[in-house]
Amino acid sequence: MGGPLAADWVAHFVGMRSKTLRGIIPICAGCKKVRDDTGFWEQVEVYISRRSSAQFSHGMCPQCFEEYYGELGIDYEEVSTTG
Asked: Does the structure show a pLDDT above 60 at 2?
């Protein structure tokens, strides 16, 4: 098994999995959407996921937690999994 065809396939697959974003990425200062090459604005997670092998998980930073849930009197440290 192996040979030139297998080596070519492996090289192609590795190249696909290691995509890197480069250059200036136009991002909205307000909503943080990113403008693609066609002028369409999309969420930053979608933009990066389509162009790289990166994946996202979502959480909430302490400042946003305070902004959205501060009035409920919940302590961020009590509910944070990263503390």
From this structure: no
Cα separation, 14 vs 65, in Å, equals 39
Strand partners, 27: 34
- Residue extents of the structural domains in the chain: 3-79
- Rounded to an integer, what is the distance from CA 39 to the centroid of its chain? 20
Bridge partners for 34 per DSSP: 27, 42
Q: What is the DSSP string of 1-68?
A: --HHHHHHHHHHHHHHHT----S---B-TTT--EE-TTS-EE-HHHHHHHHSS--------HHHHHHH
Average pLDDT over residues 61-73: 90
**Global pTM exceeds 0.70:** no
